[in-house]
């Protein structure tokens, strides 16, 4: 079965992890510090906090932004459930705003209509690898005193308007799962423009520990002292994962080049095929294509999915609208809430896309899909 995504591991990656195993630090060591600095440089120089997954990154980000009961978080239904569930777990009410039918990205006009004085965060998702319209979203959030969050699980390494992912929203979350644009095994990161939010993110992911003597409330203890002012969790990335991530970052530009090349070949092959619709790219965006979301028209998506899988091609669907999940449906969210997102979901099919995909593999995908829809 040809997978729709997979990791790319080199001998340099293996050597980097092996070097950590031979060293003194398996976690909370120098590789983590170096990786966070490298992510910061990639993301515009802002504070980066590494963590154990993209889901952990979202939990950290919402906690660092002070999300809690009584707050509202506006987000898109066209995403993995964690974008919404991590806010809900902190007690916030999730408000879903519809997407642009062409791109699958959250629609600023829908966000505008959903804003209230209780809005704490506007959380966009860089679906498939291209950035949402943060130039439009930021003023909306600012108007009600909210913060913007970019769920950049798909877009690490991309840019918009000449600015890198990580510099486009107040807070950016990243995922380094094996199928993503670079991997630490499991892992993620939170990038924060506001240093205060960045410090809160760090402490939340580090069990809430405060180690700055100037902030201690217990001032008569010894040099070993540390204390907890707010609850936190252990979401720390290991030095093993960080070393792998550092090695992967050295090849990020090559990963991007190959993903762009494959996307261009798919676009050309499917441009004039009846029954298919190719992805639409926003003006001013330089995507890091993580998914290739072809649209299968005429109600044939499931048929084509099953026949592609039967032909040994591992297509996927990204994603069921979040509020269709029973955990949200039981709270009263109804189908029909975001019609563009639901129509996009009904048509979307993710084709194989990863750097090691050969030209022959791409030809096989193209030929099989064209034959099935003809």
TrEMBL record:
Keywords in alphabetical order: Aminotransferase, Pyridoxal phosphate, Transferase
InterPro entries: DegT/StrS_aminotransferase, PseC, PyrdxlP-dep_Trfase, PyrdxlP-dep_Trfase_major, PyrdxlP-dep_Trfase_small
Gene3D superfamilies hit by this protein: Aspartate Aminotransferase, domain 1, Type I PLP-dependent aspartate aminotransferase-like (Major domain)
Residues recorded as bearing N6-(pyridoxal phosphate)lysine in the entry: 180
Any one GO BP annotation for this protein: polysaccharide biosynthetic process
EC top class, as a word: transferase
PANTHER family listed in its UniProt record: DTDP-4-AMINO-4,6-DIDEOXYGALACTOSE TRANSAMINASE, TRANSAMINASE
Protein name, per record: UDP-4-amino-4, 6-dideoxy-N-acetyl-beta-L-altrosamine transaminase
Species of the source: Kribbella jiaozuonensis
Lineage: Bacteria, Bacillati, Actinomycetota, Actinomycetes, Propionibacteriales
